[in-house]
Amino acid sequence: MTLTSQEVNYLIWRYFQEVGLELSAYALDDETKIHELDELYKNKIPIGSLVNFIQKGILYTMKEGEVLESKSSLHEFAKELNLLSSIKHTNTEIVPPSTNTTDNNSCFTRVLKSLFTYPSSMHSSFNPSSEKVLAWGERKSKSVICVINDQSQIKIDVEHYVIENEKGNDITLVSWSRLGDSLLTCCENGEIRMWEADGKIKMVLHNHASPIVHVSWSPDSRSFLTLDSDNVVIIWDSFTGKARQVLDAGLKDRVLGLDTVWIDESKVVVPGLKNSIHIFQVSEKEPVGTLYGHSNTITSLAYYKELHLLASGSDDNDIRIWRSNSLNSAQLLQGHTQPILSLDWLPTNEKFKNPDLSKLVILISTSMDGSIRVWDVYKGDTVMFSLNENGVPFVCSKISPDKTKIVTGDLDGSIKIWSINYQSLEQFLSEHKLDASNTGTNIQSIECVAEYEPNTSKKEEPDENDILIDDDVDEKQQSGNDLEDDKQIFITSLSWNKNGSLLSVSYSNIDSVVIKVDQL
């Protein structure tokens, strides 16, 4: 297989367009007339092909050298070459975290224990205005608001009254308003109820006909958005309960996206058809802008208000950065080999002391490939990187409110907490400066500082300071504490409390837990 020079030019021309370099694309086309190949290739060559070719070429060259050195057969070479092993065989040097500390135990990963347990749950959420108030959803249309004290707990049950034995009556999602004065509980049948913080019912909403998969509140909490599994988006007035806007993509056989984000009180970003991203003005039927670039489901969105930058992650393994004044992506971040789980902007302007470095735009991402990456967005470089032990995939992740820690969940239900060391990162960036001569040769690592392993065989024996939530004894005896062989546990949600001292982990098929992490 060979490539002609014109085909190489075509890939470069396409790359220029994908990353928003319109002038470069125009200049190349003006000299080569490369657009003439577009009719032939535009529907056959996927987005990101040039970078994909280069990455695979690097891997092939590395493996070819190993084959020649070890005199292995090409058949053995082909068996070894896969995306997961390519992460481990990268030629990037991982710089270990700084050891300049007086804490003799800092090099060990701390093993965490649960503060208390609560029943198996699909979703939980800490109140953003109170560090000790947690809400979670259970089966049989029941939700709980719990106030956590030092040696006890106060529980308020709130329920959706549905027909007994009716299918689809589990609580799939709970969400506090940004002010913490209202709680939404979403039932599997699509019903939504809004409650006051003390458990009093405020309103019942019936417009959805399928499970809610995502809720997002506007910055002022005057509106909230709900997205269901049939790709129906509804924007509600949180005071009247009226639907301000209904967006139905008309596609029910696949999920278009799992995330939305508010730009301001009147503009919202939602997934669209053909893996696009729509920007809607509230109450307007048509989007004010549509962004194309991804080739699969949109999984994560993050907006940087001060710089008007939008980050989007997808099942196509790519991260794209968009500017507010362009419909073309300004940057393409590639390196993950599995779908993107989460994206968050890091506040370097607050954390870095060096005024020059504080101007850097830094993004952190997690992926199902079991890796965490921190990116210099403008340069497109990975500046921090860590891979989960043995390459075990992540299934969920959540950054702490102060953005100094990020928690990840594995397939087996184990939890890891990673430290984002801004001082170490700033020192590293200051020393290496990431210029063209050393970019990609050194990367700072992200340290795993704590782990939690769920007890899947029996209920944990509480410490003397543990808080236990006593639910119906007969129900617990009927379900049993031992995990049935045919039931696999899953982490269904993660939630940090206001100051990042407590972490709620919701599990299916075993008790959920709240973990104390304030001394990390």
Automatic annotation (TrEMBL):
Subcellular location: Nucleus
WD repeats: 205-246, 291-332, 333-385, 400-421
The UniProt record lists the keyword Nucleotide-binding: no
GO BP, sorted A to Z: negative regulation of meiotic nuclear division; positive regulation of stress-activated MAPK cascade; regulation of transcription by RNA polymerase II
Any single GO CC term annotated in Swiss-Prot or TrEMBL for this entry: Set3 complex
PROSITE patterns from the UniProt entry: LISH, WD_REPEATS_1, WD_REPEATS_2, WD_REPEATS_REGION
Keyword Repeat: yes
Organism: Komagataella phaffii (strain GS115 / ATCC 20864)
Major place of residence: nucleus
InterPro entries for this protein: Ebi-like, LisH, WD40/YVTN_repeat-like_dom_sf, WD40_PAC1, WD40_repeat_CS, WD40_repeat_dom_sf, WD40_rpt
Protein name in the entry: WD40 repeat-containing subunit of the Set3C histone deacetylase complex
Membrane-spanning parts: none
GO MF annotation list: transcription corepressor activity
